[in-house]
Amino acid sequence: MKKSEDLFKQDLPSSKYNKSLQSLNLHPLSLISDMASQAHSNVEEGETKEMDIRSLSSSHHSVYNTQYLHKVGVPPKQNLFREFTATVKETFFHDDPLRPFKDQPRSRKFILGIQAIFPILEWARGYSWRKFRGDLIAGLTIASLCIPQDIGYAKLANLDPQYGLYSSLVPPLIYAFMGSSRDIAIGPVAVVSLLLGTMLSSEIDPIKNKAEYRRLAFTATFFAGITQATLGFLRLGFLIDFLSHAAIVGFMAGAAVTIALQQLKGLLGIKDFTKKSDIISVMNSVWGNVHHGWNWQTILIGVSFLSFLLFAKYIGKTNRKLFWVPAIAPLISVILSTFFVYITHAEKKGVQIVKQIEKGINPSSVDQIYFSGDYLLKGLKIGVVAGMIALTEAVAIGRTFASKKDYQINGNKEMVALGAMNVVGSMTSCYVATGSFSRSAVNYMAGCETAVSNIIMSCVVFLTLEFITPLFKYTPNAILASIIISAVIGLIDVPAAILIWKIDKFDFVACLGAFLGVVFSSVEIGLLIAVTISFAKILLQVTRPRTAILGKLPRTSVYRNIQQYPEAAKVPGLLIVRVDSAIYFSNSNYVKERILRWLMDEEELVKAACQPTIQFLIVEMSPVTDIDTSGIHALEELHRSLGKKGVQLILANPGPTVIDKLHASDFANLIAEDRIFLTVSDAVSSCSPKLVEEV
Amino acid sequence: MKKSEDLFKQDLPSSKYNKSLQSLNLHPLSLISDMASQAHSNVEEGETKEMDIRSLSSSHHSVYNTQYLHKVGVPPKQNLFREFTATVKETFFHDDPLRPFKDQPRSRKFILGIQAIFPILEWARGYSWRKFRGDLIAGLTIASLCIPQDIGYAKLANLDPQYGLYSSLVPPLIYAFMGSSRDIAIGPVAVVSLLLGTMLSSEIDPIKNKAEYRRLAFTATFFAGITQATLGFLRLGFLIDFLSHAAIVGFMAGAAVTIALQQLKGLLGIKDFTKKSDIISVMNSVWGNVHHGWNWQTILIGVSFLSFLLFAKYIGKTNRKLFWVPAIAPLISVILSTFFVYITHAEKKGVQIVKQIEKGINPSSVDQIYFSGDYLLKGLKIGVVAGMIALTEAVAIGRTFASKKDYQINGNKEMVALGAMNVVGSMTSCYVATGSFSRSAVNYMAGCETAVSNIIMSCVVFLTLEFITPLFKYTPNAILASIIISAVIGLIDVPAAILIWKIDKFDFVACLGAFLGVVFSSVEIGLLIAVTISFAKILLQVTRPRTAILGKLPRTSVYRNIQQYPEAAKVPGLLIVRVDSAIYFSNSNYVKERILRWLMDEEELVKAACQPTIQFLIVEMSPVTDIDTSGIHALEELHRSLGKKGVQLILANPGPTVIDKLHASDFANLIAEDRIFLTVSDAVSSCSPKLVEEV
Question: What residues form the membrane-spanning segments (chains A, B) (predicted)?
Answer without folding.
Answer: 174-196, 216-236, 242-261, 296-315, 322-343, 382-402, 414-434, 454-472, 479-501, 513-536
